[in-house]
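**User:**
Everyone, produce one record:

**Assistant:**
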Amino acid sequence: MKRSWNPRIWAGFALALAAVASYPLVFIKYPITRDVPWATLVLLVPAIVLLVSGLARAFRQPEAYRGRIAGSLVATVTALLVGFFLFGVFYATRQIPASHGAPKVGDAAPDFTLPDSTGRSVTLSGLLTSPFVGNASSTTGSASGPTAAVLLIFYRGYW
């Protein structure tokens, strides 16, 4: 009896490669799939199921299916690939050192100049000393009255 090749092993390997490659190529662009790579994990589950079922088929029916040696090697490579992916996503990216130069809560922000939505240059010190006007049509604000407040939000990402 001629032995046939075992497509489950190779389909599982190809799907695992596609899943791991899809994270940096597609899913890392979107915060919903970057922070917890659930889409990649959903793709890895059937890949592992196909690979394990293909190996089981190769070892249970060696007279009908090939893949005991090649399947074992492919399964080892896939396990290493998935392991490195999970290590990188869930452990290594969380080990980013704290930024020593970043301001902390309550620290005074350094003065800066940035363009506003109309293209005019605005400084932080100018905003903090400007009079507060609650309504654009109201002119109740004066230099001696309450001044405007500024809220700064710092996003620390990794890219």
